[in-house]
Every structure is written in C-alpha cells, then in structure tokens.
Amino acid sequence: MAEHAARIRIGVAGWDYPDWAGVVYPPGAARGFDRLAFVARFVELVEINSTFYRPNTARTALSWLRRTESQARFRFAAKAHRSWTHERDPDLDAAVPPTLDGLRPLLEAERLSALLVQFPQSFHWGEPARERLSRILERVAGWPVAVEVRHVSWDRDEAAAWLRERRAGWCVVDQPRVGRSTAPARPRVTAPLAYVRLHGRNRANWFREGAGRDARYDYLYPVAELEPLADAARSMAGQAAELLVVQNNHFRGQALVNALQLRHLIEQRRPAAPESLVQVYPDLEPITTVQRERLF
Prior knowledge:
alpha/beta
C-alpha cells in the first residue's frame, strides 16, 4: 500500500480566504505575505478556484509556478470557467481557449495535474448532457480532465463507462446527502487521473436559501469520517496513476486541518503543520510536526 500512497496528492481548494488570517496564516503577517507559497509548504496540491469566475493570464500562471518551485511534489488543479458548464448554450469555441491559454504554462511545466469541469446539481444524466460534455471533452483533448457531477442520476455504471471510453476522470464528490437528489461518494476510477472532492457534510445549509459560501462549507470532518475516506483513497490509488484529494470545507482553515489529518492516516507519518493552525485546532498537535514562524 505504500506505493499507492505515493500516487496520492492531498490538498485544499483555494488559498486566499480572509478568515484564514491568524488561523492558517500567522497572526501579524505583513500585507506582502505570500499565502500561496506558505500553503504549498503544507500540502502537495492546490485547486485554483478563481478560474471558475475568470480565466487567469499566462503571466499569473508563471507567477504561481515561481512561488511554488521550491516544493518539488507540489501541483495545481484548476476549475474550468463557469461558462462551459453553467450557461444554457455556451459558445465553447469562444469560451474554452481563454481558460486553456491561461493554464498552459502550468501544463507545459508538468505542474497541472487536473482541469476540473464542474457541473451544477441541475445537470442530469441524459442525451443532452452527454452531447454537451462530449463537445467540451473534444476541445480539451490532451489535457488531464476530471468531471464533477453532483446529481444522483449520474450514479450509474453506464455513466462511468461513458467517461472511461473518453479517458476522462470521474470526480468523486463527498457532499451532504439531501433528499434523493445528491449523488453518493461512490469510489470510481475512469482514467489514469482520479479525483476526490470533500465538500463537508453541512446538510442544514447545503441548499438553504440565503446561505453564503462560508455557511455551506463550514464543516470539520471528525476522524471517524475521514478513516473510511482514507481507505477509499488507498483503493482508488491502486487503480490510477495519480489521485487528487481536495478538501473544499474551507471555512476557518478546516480544509487544511482535514487535509493534514488525511495525510497522517494515509501516509502514517506526521506532516508539517502551521503553528497558528495547531493553536486553533489543538487536536492536530499529536499527529503533526509544528512549524513555528518568525515574521520579524
């Protein structure tokens, strides 16, 4: 199982959250403090969320590479722009190239592990969905693609086989089970790239009208819930060349807490942890190596 663990990269979704100040990032950090470089010391993967809202420039991608170059195992995943997946009838010939152009420096440097194509809950399995996804996959040929679908209608072997034929990765989604509409986190591997996203299980706020992003993702997985997820990750890694596990329960640094706990469970070692995070979440202290910061 040790060789399987080596194929797993565990990380977090995003790194620029105001509520991480003094929790993930050290209290008193100066305005020029490099948050990305700091996070890259503690995880092997960051999922770029900003590209969902606006494609980045190649210059920005080169900056990301430069700021993380000291971490040899560190990689990026990035979300496709929302126009691909959330608009009714997008012009993909116009929408796709800006995202790919901005991410190409990461791909060429072999530091982009995945391009995540994330569909909303309203995207149901069926011929229109397959036709739309086919058009997207045709335009990203040669890129490492994972597809995230959340509706329960996709929870079928037929859908997994369809993605497998197209060598697209299946994104396993751990999310609150609300009614009969949300898909379960069933481990599936459909390509050399495997992907798991852990959103938390905040059932009360997941679909609540008016609940903001922080409320939805305010959830800390207890270790008892992480243990079966760690087992599933080991199993999936045995079928894939690379498995990405992304914690998206970002509020107040909980994503990093759970990422470090997962690393401990899977790798059976004490990963490094920021001193400020351990002070806020003291359960980390017995399983991590605390990294103390000197800002002055």
